[in-house]
Amino acid sequence: ALSCTFCGFYRKKGEDGAYEYSLDQIRSEARQAAEAGATELHIVGGLHPWLPFEYYTDMMRLIRETAPQIHIKAFTAVEIVHLARIAGRGRDGQEGIRSVLHELKDAGLGSLPGGGAEVFDDRVHDAAFKGKIRADQWLDVHRAAHELKLNTNATILYGHVEQRQDRIHHLMRLRQEQDRALRDWAIDQKIAPQRAVQHDGAEDEAVVLSGPDEMYPEARLPAALPGRSGIFQAIIPLPFFPDGSALEHLPAPTGLENLRTLAIARLML
To answer: Taking a C-beta distance cutoff of 8 angstroms, is the pair 76, 113 a contact?
Structure first.
């Protein structure tokens, strides 16, 4: 249903390389993965214009039935918005998103991948992936997932038409959303947030879990947060590879650029 300028993978119906998995094929894939010792299935796809919403909930159930020990990480925020539309809840805003996520979670969904974020900038959005959801909607989906105790990942796609300041802005918005999720968790765990000075000099409440301290002597966040909120588990910087896309005239990011971007992303999140 989308044709992003930067994408070299999408296929329209009837084009070479286009495919569609039946539920029986997905069951077979899940069984093979379980037999091979897999612990997680990562499932994303194109925005299929005709499959009904029930196809996706049925997919979650059959995977859980076939391989109950496997964690299911599935559906980017872009896909969740698409699923809300085909479920007839696209006009319901955040409530429609929450209801779709709730049904998918009940069917077996365990967490969300971070795809579809690209770069949180309207100029870049319109130049490279016009038609895809914008930053606010992507963040709304992940906020709804966190409120339903679903952990998620985050990504940034860099090295195309964005500027370096766009990357920093993107990471800052992710950091703000992570702080909100951690504050919710801290309130639930009765951990008093600390005063923190923000980049603009203003003070705000922040949850400091970097340790070491009496609660987290290993200086890291616990692997599983038992509170009422999910979090971003990882930030995944994705370098843009122009080959095969409409932007193939652009140079790919260098190794040094990759290292710098990864280092800054780790500092921010």
So the answer is: yes
